[in-house]
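Project channel, design review

CF: Before we commit to the Perspicuibacillus lycopersici constructs, I'd like one complete example in the thread so the newer folks can see what an input/output pair looks like. Taking Asparagine--tRNA ligase.
RD: sounds good, go ahead.
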Amino acid sequence: MKTTIAEVKNYVGQEVTIGAWLSNKRSSGKIAFLQLRDGTGFIQGVVVKNEVTEDVFQLAKSLTQESSLYVKGIIQEDTRSPFGYELLVHHVELIHQSTDYPITPKEHGTEFLMDHRHLWLRSKRQHAVMKVRNEIIRATYEFFNNNGFVKVDPPILTGSAPEGTTELFHTKYFEEDAYLSQSGQLYMEAAAMALGKVFSFGPTFRAEKSKTRRHLIEFWMIEPEMAFYQFEDNLKVQEEYVSYIVQSVVKNCQLELNTLGRDLSKLEKVTAPFPRMHYDDAIKFLHEQGFDDIEWGDDFGAPHETAIANSFDKPVFITHYPKAIKPFYMQPDPTRDDVVLCADLIAPEGYGEIIGGSERIHDFELLKKNIEAHDLPLDSYAWYLDLRKYGSVPHSGFGLGLERTVAWISGTEHVRETIPFPRLLNRLYP
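CF: and here is what came back for Asparagine--tRNA ligase:
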C-alpha cells in the first residue's frame, strides 16, 4: 500500500510504501535510524540488521542527507515519538543520491540560510511554519465563506494608490505610469457595493526601506469590505475572524506548534471579544509607562505597541486615531472632528499591528474634500467618488497582514520565516 506519512495512522500493523527524503540518520552496528520526510510530515524509519538483507542494511547505513528513496515497512505505534508512529523498515530503494547537501545539522548564519531558502524550507521548523500558514489560509476561506462573503480579486497593477504613492513600486504600463498595489481596498469597496460582503486575498507591495523583523517588501493581505457595516460591526467581524483562525491552528496544528515550542495556553485565550483602548487613553497609558517621547498626534512605533499589548493576554484594539495621521478615506468620529472611526489590532507578545481597519467615508463632498486636501489627483479617483454618487451607504473594512499573523500564532520571531520566499530590502534571491 503506497501512502504518505500524514496517513500512516490509518495503517498501523500494515505494510506500506512511502516516497521520502532522508533528513538525517544515525546508526550503530546492528540498527539504523532514518529520519524521513515526505512533505506531509516526518517519521522515523528503523532498519534492524537481522530483519533485512545485507544489501538493504548497507544501503540504509550509507544513505546521505536529502537523498530520495522509497521505503517499505510496517507501521507501528511509538509513544516516545511526538508523531506517535514509526516505520519498521523492510526494504529501501534509492531514487537519487544527494551529495554535499549544504545545510547540515549544525548552526548556520541567517544570511547563509536565506541564500539557501529553497533548501531551508525542507527543515522541520520551516515545514511547521508553512503548515501553520496553510492552516490560517484554509481557515480564512472557511470563515468568510461560512459568513456570506464573496471572494473578489482586485488588480495588482494600479494607476493610483489608496494612501499616496510615496512607498509604491513604479512601473510603466505601456505609455502610462502604474504601481504595484499596496492594498486592494478601494477596489474592494466597489465590489462591496455590488456584492454586499466581499474579501480578497493576494500579494501587496510596499517600497518601504525597513529592516525590522515585522516588515517585508512583498506580503499577503486578507482584505474584507462590507456594505451597511459601521465601525462597531467592523470590530466584531475582526475579533471573530482572528479568534477563528487562531483556534483552527490550535485544533489542527498541535504537532507543528509543539515542534515550534509554542505555548498553546497563550493561544487558547484568544477568543472574542477583544479589549479596546482609545487612542487618548493609549497616550496617557504610555506616559505612565515612561514613554515621554510620545505626544498626542504621533503614530505609535513598535515599542509603544508592545508596551500596550503586554497589558493584555489577547489582541487589543487601539481605536480613534487622530485624523491627521490616517488616510483620506476614513470616516470622522461624529462626536469629534479630530479623530476617525478606525482601529489597529495589536497582537500580544510584541508582534505588533496585524490588522488596520476603519469605517469608510460615504459622503461624496467630504471624500472629495479629503482627496483634494491630500493633494491627490481627482481624475484618478473619479471612479472611487462614483461609489458615493450612486447609492452610497455606510461601509467598513479592514486588512490583515498574513505574515505578521503567522509570526504571532507560530511564535516565529522574524517575518522572513513566515513566507516561502521572502522579499526583503536587500534580498531578491532566490
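RD: helpful, thanks. DSSP finds 13 helices and 18 strands in the chain.
CF: The mean pLDDT is 96.
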